[in-house]
Amino acid sequence: MYRLEACGHSYCKECVQFQFQADLNSLPVCCSSEDCEEKWVLKDITKIADKTNTQVDLLVEKATSSFVAKNQIAYKYCTTPDCPIIYRVSEKENLFTCPQCEIRICTGCHKQYHDGLSCEQAKLAGTKQADDKSLELFLQECKLDIKKCPKCSTLIEKIDGCNRVTCKACTTNICWVCLNHYPTAGDCYDHLYQEHGGCFDLT
């Protein structure tokens, strides 16, 4: 006879081994006595696995996979491909460092951990919209005379000189006053004199 550790119910050894092998495809393995659904503990599993030549590490992997599949809202696998480690999901951002591959995961959004940012902030941070917004804020607060090239968006700083500026990236000629741009320096100068009264700031 074999007595289960969890609940104490007894079975003949052949019966418990047969049940174990039959239930491997529908984990967890539970006591089959009437009105008892107590799950087998690890000690029972390792003993019977040894008797039936079942590899315990493969059994644990299968049991873990079955558990995560049934509890997808509460548990997730590490985001590294083929990493067997699981972690508990949280409602808000929280750091989980995988003990096997050492990747740092946010348990709220399941992405690489974002120090100092909420999940929403981290999601926005990687978008072009966020980059443009940050750049506009920088230009508004910056005390230097910096503007974006109207043709290629390269940042240009004007230190002194006249209001015709050449972008070093795309070589277009720019009116620094209104940011119109022209293919030649002559066209830009004509614009400056016609529209702004000259090529220098009137102070």
UniProtKB/TrEMBL annotation:
Pfam families, A to Z: IBR, IBR_1
CDD domains documented for this protein: BRcat_RBR
A GO BP entry: protein linear polyubiquitination
Record GO terms (molecular function): hydrolase activity; RNA helicase activity; ubiquitin binding; ubiquitin-protein transferase activity; zinc ion binding
Residue ranges occupied by any RING-type domain in the UniProt entry: 1-200
EC numbers for this chain: 3.6.4.13
Entry protein name: DHX8
Source organism per UniProt: Mytilus edulis
